[in-house]
């Protein structure tokens, strides 16, 4: 099929590249000239493992191209995929201005019948709104479908090439066959439903995953008080097939460009029809407070934070991405700066993006994890990057001012900590090294 993808963020770029990889002709459009220039030179504007190799392969095969010329891309294509951003408005509602702009431009450019698919995460009813905007701007016939995207950053290519399911939301049943055929290259788990249900499936899925995370984080807070180990609790729970083992890792809470904005948006969607989504409101509140557990643990072990040196390992909201949108690290770093601490920051990939967001005289930018620990009164691990798992922990006692390690992602095992001399505080786990936690930590 000939496909145009509007927007080359994570979703647009990865789905464009993957549609090309399975044999379609894809042209990706963005209004950001700098992004398109990079892409035309086979440089990915996002950090995503494997993306540049796939881009290069498919550009050379003549199946993938990039342009700023939306009208030209639309006129060459049968299927138009909308993958522009839907960020939060200050009240939590989804900002649909990019969607509306794209719909208007598509309508104006259309020269023949098109299928228009929305991959952006949009509130229920938005596809009908898109349909109306396009209809106001064209005389051509067209159909609208909702194909929500479930990829995760950091594993986006594999998630797209081998998804658990594809959801096709369509009201014109004659589209079921060609769109099923198009997606069969990825999976045969294709679920066809109405447009409104498809829109809701996306929000409900993210809200449910966020709920699992906040649930296990609350369990971890209780575990700390009763002397249980949340990692064992999660393992034991996860063996029940009805519960499942994924998304039960306790830590400093979820961040990223999706869960925070989509949970807020779903609360608003419910509110707009006079329904108070109490459970989801609590999920969001629990998540907001969970990151401050790092600060509480620092205060409990160091006392006054003013004048202390704190090393930070990891800034991105999760490993294998340089995305810092809504990363817990942002508020943790801001709080520590306000408290008068000196910070030594290190992330394998996200340093530049973080520095664009927060730069301050109290911050020292480090080249590696060890450098961030030199002279530190404590090190806090905020992102579970693979490289932190293999750091030489036994060296820390020699280079740190005080041997305090606060692990916000439960990365290290008892065996790894044993004999390092570190005072090790993690999330929802009892003392792991025989070095007693200060009494104030046992809340
Ligand atoms: N990031 C993810 O992992 C992920 C996963 C699933 C779903 N989603 C959803 O997909 C959507 C896109 O997310 P993202 O992270 O890829 O967004 P993004 O904000 O990173 O990228 C959007 C891109 O669209 C471009 N754009 C905006 N308006 C345009 C227009 N009229 N014409 C051409 N280009 C235009 C922007 O310049 C930008 O490059 C959002 O609704 C998001 O919620 C994101
Ligand atoms: O057990 C867990 C699992 C995740 N997280 C955190 O949750 C956040 C989100 O992680 P993840 O879901 O892996 O990354 P995203 O790329 O944000 O992907 C989510 O958001 C996307 C955008 O909507 C969806 O497409 C995906 O299906 C959905 O998983 C990160 O901060 C993780 O550290 C935890 O704290 N504990």
Automatic annotation (TrEMBL):
SMART domains: UDPG_MGDP_dh_C. It catalyses: UDP-alpha-D-glucose + 2 NAD(+) + H2O = UDP-alpha-D-glucuronate + 2 NADH + 3 H(+). The active site is at 258 (nucleophile). Substrate binds at residues 150-153, 202, 247-251, 255, 318. SUPFAM superfamilies: 6-phosphogluconate dehydrogenase C-terminal domain-like, NAD(P)-binding Rossmann-fold domains, UDP-glucose/GDP-mannose dehydrogenase C-terminal domain. Residues 311-414 form the UDP-glucose/GDP-mannose dehydrogenase C-terminal domain. It is an enzyme of class 1 (oxidoreductase). GO terms for molecular function: NAD binding; UDP-glucose 6-dehydrogenase activity. Its EC number is 1.1.1.22. Gene3D superfamilies: Cytochrome c1, transmembrane anchor, C-terminal, NAD(P)-binding Rossmann-like Domain. Pfam families: UDPG_MGDP_dh (PF00984), UDPG_MGDP_dh_C (PF03720), UDPG_MGDP_dh_N (PF03721). Pathway: Nucleotide-sugar biosynthesis; UDP-alpha-D-glucuronate biosynthesis; UDP-alpha-D-glucuronate from UDP-alpha-D-glucose: step 1/1. GO terms for biological process: polysaccharide biosynthetic process; UDP-glucuronate biosynthetic process. Keywords: NAD, Oxidoreductase. NAD(+) binds at residues 30, 35, 86, 121, 153, 261, 325. Catalyzes the conversion of UDP-glucose into UDP-glucuronate, one of the precursors of teichuronic acid. Belongs to the UDP-glucose/GDP-mannose dehydrogenase family. NCBIfam families: NDP-sugDHase. This is UDP-glucose 6-dehydrogenase. The lineage of its organism: Bacteria, Bacillati, Bacillota, Bacilli, Bacillales.
């Amino acid at each position: 099929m000939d496909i145009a993808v509007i927007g080359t963020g994570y979703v647009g770029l990865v789905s464009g590249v993957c549609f090309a990889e399975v044999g379609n002709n894809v042209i990706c459009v963005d209004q950001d000239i700098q992004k398109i220039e990079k892409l035309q030179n086979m440089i990915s504007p996002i950090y995503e493992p494997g993306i540049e190799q796939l881009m290069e392969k498919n550009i050379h095969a003549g199946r993938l191209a990039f342009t700023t010329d939306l009208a030209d891309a639309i006129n060459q294509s049968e299927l138009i995929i909308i993958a522009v951003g839907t960020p939060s408005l200050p009240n939590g509602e989804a900002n649909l201005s990019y969607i509306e702009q794209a719909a208007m431009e598509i309508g104006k450019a259309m020269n023949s019948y098109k299928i228009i698919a929305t991959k952006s995460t949009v509130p229920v009813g938005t596809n009908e709104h898109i349909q109306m905007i396009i209809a106001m701007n064209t005389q051509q016939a067209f159909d609208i479908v909702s194909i929500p995207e479930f990829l995760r950053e950091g594993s986006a290519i594999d998630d797209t090439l081998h998804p658990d399911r594809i959801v096709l939301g369509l009201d014109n049943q004659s589209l079921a066959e060609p769109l099923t055929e198009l997606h069969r290259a990825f999976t045969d788990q294709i679920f066809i439903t109405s447009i409104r249900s498809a829109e809701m499936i996306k929000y409900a899925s993210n809200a449910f995953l966020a709920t699992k995370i906040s649930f296990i984080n609350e369990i971890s807070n209780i575990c700390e008080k009763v002397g249980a180990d949340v990692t064992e609790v999660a393992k034991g729970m996860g063996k029940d097939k009805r519960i499942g083992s994924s998304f039960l890792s306790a830590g400093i809470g979820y961040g990223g460009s999706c869960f925070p904005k989509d949970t807020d948006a779903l609360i608003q969607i419910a509110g707009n029809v006079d329904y108070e989504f109490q459970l989801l409101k609590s999920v969001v509140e629990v998540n907001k407070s969970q990151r401050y557990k790092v600060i509480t643990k620092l205060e409990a072990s160091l006392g006054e934070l003013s004048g202390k040196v704190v090393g930070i390992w990891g800034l991105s909201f999760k490993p294998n991405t340089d995305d810092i949108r809504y990363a817990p690290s942002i508020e943790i770093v801001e709080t520590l700066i306000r408290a008068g601490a000196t910070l030594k920051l290190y992330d394998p990939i996200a340093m530049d993006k973080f520095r664009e967001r927060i730069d301050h005289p109290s911050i020292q930018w480090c080249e590696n994890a060890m450098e961030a620990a030199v002279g530190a009164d404590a090190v806090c691990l905020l992102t579970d990057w693979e490289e932190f798992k293999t750091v030489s922990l036994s060296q820390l006692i020699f280079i740190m001012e005080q041997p305090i390690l606060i692990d916000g992602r439960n990365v290290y095992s008892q065996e790894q900590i044993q004999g390092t001399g570190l005072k090790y505080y993690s999330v929802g786990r009892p003392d792991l090294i025989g070095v007693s936690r200060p009494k104030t930590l046992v809340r």
